[in-house]
Amino acid sequence: GVTPNIAPSMLSADFANLSSEAHRILNSGADWLHMDVMDGHFVPNLTIGAPVIESLRKHTTAYLDCHMMVTNPLDYVEPLGKAGASGFTFHVETSKDNWQELIQMIKSHGMRPGVALNPGTPIGEVYPLVEAEKPVEMVLVMTVEPGFGGQKFMPEMMDKVRILRKRYPLLDIEVDGGLGPSNIDMAASAGANCIVAGSSVFGASEPAEVISLLRSSVQK
Ligand code: DX5
Ligand code: ZN
User: Fold this and answer.
1) Angle between helices 18-27 and 207-219 (to 10 degrees)
2) At residue 203, what are phi and psi to the nearest 5 degrees?
3) What are the transmembrane regions (predicted)?
4) pTM, entire model
5) How far apart are CA 62 and CA 122, in angstroms?
């Protein structure tokens, strides 16, 4: 079966102390570090890019799960690859015509390709990318509108997760936005195995407890 990957979102970390925040959260049991790259154009917010990922990479060997909320993901492949990114998840909305080239480039730069979709995007739009000769290896189902941490989880997105899990029993399916102890069972039973959690982990007095709760729900 699929293994759980708990991916705290560094968007909720103290950006002025990124290295110590990363170590704190990895020591609390995180599997991946979720890195939200935003360009102020695809989404109305600007966060981090290749230079910050390159800096963080010097302080950790952790899997850096990069979520590319950018209008032109192709422009970011080489910089992110050189910076030491591990996963490169682009949005299907940005890449209707060039996803094959994009997947190819991501792999040739040593990263694992994934595709994300916004709440308003139908799930069928990712099928060709999962079924391609060179496929994406993860689908990220947004459970909030992308752009900001701390928003409310959209339970109606679980239909997409269920449909994906039924169709692809071994696929990595990631959920992102508003996840925490109150809704993890819903996401896990729908079939998600990669769990992004920003405010619920970083806002907790004991992040390790929240991470272990998220993991045990996925393992059930
Ligand atoms: C939203 C980002 C998320 C966000 C999650 O655009 O993609 O990764 O940081 O944060 P929470 O868990 O607080 O919704
Ligand atoms: Zn994200």
Assistant:
1) 50
2) -85, -5
3) none
4) 0.98
5) 32
Q: How far is the CA of 117 from the centre of ligand 1 (A)?
A: 14
pLDDT in tens, 102-159: 999 999 999 999 999 999 999 999 999 999 999 999 999 999 999 999 999 999 999 9
- Give Cβ neighbours of residue 43 (< 8 Å, ≥ 6 apart): 69, 146, 147
The total of structural domains in the chain comes to 1
Q: What is the CATH number of the domain that holds 29?
A: 3.20.20.70
Q: What 3-state class would DSSP assign to 115?
A: strand
Quote the ligand 2 centre to 119 CA distance (angstroms): 13
Average pLDDT of every residue of the chain: 98
150 known ligand binder: yes
What residues does ligand 1 touch, defined as CB less than 6 Å away? Answer: 9, 11-12, 34, 36, 67, 144, 146-151, 176-179, 196-200
Share of the chain above pLDDT 70, in %: 100
pLDDT of residue 53: 98
pLDDT of residue 1: 65
- Domain extent for 190: 5-219
Separation of CA 204 from chain center: 20
List, as own/partner pairs, every contact residues 181-186 make where C-beta atoms lie below 8 angstroms and the sequence separation is at least 24, other chains included.
181/210, 181/213, 181/214, 183/153, 183/155, 184/213, 184/214, 184/217, 184/218, 185/217, 185/220, 186/155, 186/158
CA 216 from chain center: how many Å? Answer: 19
